[in-house]
Specification:
Helix content: 25-40%
Number of domains: 2
Distance between the termini: 55 Å
Largest sheet: 4 strands, antiparallel
CATH superfamily of the largest domain: Lrp/AsnC effector binding domain/regulation of amino acid metabolism (RAM) domain
CATH topology of the largest domain: Alpha-Beta Plaits
Strand content: 15-25%
Strand order of the largest sheet: 2-3-1-4
CATH architecture of the largest domain: 2-Layer Sandwich
CATH class of the largest domain: Alpha Beta
Structural class: alpha+beta
Number of helices: 5
Order of helices and strands: HHHEHEEHEEE
Length: 164
Amino acid sequence: MDDIKVRLLQALEQNHRITTCTLATMLDLPENEVKNIIKELEDVKIILGYVTLIDWEKTGNNDNVTAIIDVQMTPQRDVGFDVIAERICRFPEVTSVYLMSGGYDLSVMVEGTSLKQVAFFVSEKLATMENVQSTATHFVLKKYKQNGIVFNDDKKDHRLVITP
């Protein structure tokens, strides 16, 4: 992939609301060419979507529960973990699925409206799947940073004061 596309992707990853006019200036390209490159990257599924990160704590509507579930499983012959991971991805509660190294094979991020709903998902949907050997559920208590964005970043100077 050429340098211009990489720089464009990096800029969009930092701020998906950046205008094509600003991108054109940054990349020293005509705006129409930037639009065409973005369309091409969307068409070939390099750009998969645009996300807005919201601090739900500040809205007062923070009723959701987030859990990270480590899944240990037996890979399937000829397809490994892919078929099971794709099946897990289809559940509406699941927000992310990662193949991991270490003691567990998959890391599954789930959101629900209550601890009970997440527990039901694990016990009735995930743990009962063929080839799943065990799960370990970790509930997120507080988010400090997500997708490179620091929550509650007050931009204060936290350096210690030096006095004589």
